[in-house]
Amino acid sequence: MRPKYPVQAPELLAGPTDPAQPRSPAPDPREPAPASATAPPPSADATEPDLPSPRPDQRGPFRAEQVRPGDPCELSHGHPVFCLPGGGRASGALLLGGAVVAWDPAVSEAGAGTGYCPAPEVLRAPHVAVGNVPDTPGWVPGAPALAIEYADAGDDEARLGRKIDDLLGAGTRWVWVVRLAGPRHVEVHAPGEPPRRALPGELLHAPGALQNPVQVEALYDRAAAQRAILTSLLQREGHSSLESLRDRGLREGRNEGLQQAVRDVCDVLGIALSTDEDASLLELDGPALAALLERLKRERRWPLP
After folding, report:
1. What is the C-alpha to C-alpha distance for residues 172 and 142, in angstroms, rounded to an integer?
2. Each residue's pLDDT tens digit, 54-113
3. Distances (CA, A) of 226 to 150, 185, 217, 222, 277
4. Which of 39, 84, 132, 166 has the smallest set of CB atoms within 10 Å of its CB?
5. Which residues sit opposite 187 in a β-bridge?
6. Gap between the Cα atoms of 295 and 31, Å rounded
């Protein structure tokens, strides 16, 4: 059964300016038990909220400076939000989706679980963040351009909704929620727009944050993620795609073959190539080398410039 809120370090939950509260005296065993103690326990499938949902205008007493890296909580308007570890399916998909966006050619900063502190009473750590992930310790001011959350069976929807609102309110331009339970899909959240659902086969766009559109299934499927990562790595090295790299290899191989054919024909005809003439072969493309080769066979001499 999920631990009931709060499950935090005592020094985190005790406000630094609040006096210590005296411990209540033990109840007299001769007195009747309170009604709550004799009431029947809740059913096993009853859902108990970890924390009563505060109104948006309510501010809790806690601040980001009281939370240390590694503490299992975030903050929403000063209220602690306990963070449970993810399951195997969500953790594996998170790793794939994070790699897909991290290697996009336009991305220079990306992180997993980065803590963002846009205000003293707000601390949020999206599963994957793109943009505004500095190589420095401590909480990051502001918010990422793109945040990706993974939601699986049993996740708290109200808590997820508050997290999305906090991120968008802090300046995040897109929040992609990858739904792993049931028919898989991605929910796209953006400021001032209603959420929309993207299904497998559709493309997700984040202009200004990502160069390449992302296939929905690349955020959780290993084969799709591998294709997307390979494309991004090739683009980072100057190749638009794997097909373009293959075409370039074929062209260069064909050109090298024609260059060698020209040298062989010149050797048979007794034509001595100067250093400059040999170097000029490297500047010719395939059609020009083929035309030079045919002319050498026909005229049996090196063509004048």
Report:
1. 9
2. 555 578 888 888 888 877 788 888 887 877 777 888 999 999 999 999 999 999 999 999
3. 19, 19, 11, 6, 45
4. 39
5. 177, 197
6. 114
- Assess whether the previous peptide bond of 6 is cis (omega < 30° from 0): yes
Please write the tens of the pLDDT for every residue from 190-218.
999 999 999 999 999 999 999 999 999 99
Residue 91 φ/ψ, nearest 5 degrees: -65, -40
Question: Residue 199: which residues within 8 A CB-CB, separation 6 or more?
Answer: 183, 185, 216
Alpha helices in 216-299 (DSSP H): 222-236, 242-269, 275-280, 286-299
HEC sequence for the chain: CCCCCCCCCHHHHCCCCCCCCCCCCCCCCCCCCCHHHHCCCCCCCCCCCCCCCCCCCCCCCCCHHHCCCCCCEEEECCEEEECCCCCHHHHHHHHHHHHHHHCCCCCCCEEECCCEEEECCEEECCCEEECCCCCCCCCECCCCCEEEEEECCCCCHHHHHHHHHHHHHHCCCEEEEEECCCCCEEEEECCCCCCEEECCCCEECCCCCCCCCEEHHHHCCHHHHHHHHHHHHHHHCCCCCHHHHHHHHHHHHHHHHHHHHHHHHHHHHCCCCCHHHHHHHHHCCHHHHHHHHHHHHHHCCCCCC
Nearest CA to 174 among 140, 130, 139, 141?
130
Q: Do the beta carbons of residue 173 and residue 190 sit within 8 Å?
A: yes
Give the number of C-alpha atoms closer than 13 A to the C-alpha of residue 24, restricted to the C-beta side.
3
Distance between CA atoms of residues 161 and 176, nearest Å: 12
* CA–CA dist 245, 249 (Å, integer): 6
Give the pLDDT confidence of 130-171 residue by residue, as tens digits: 999 999 999 999 999 999 999 998 888 999 999 999 999 999
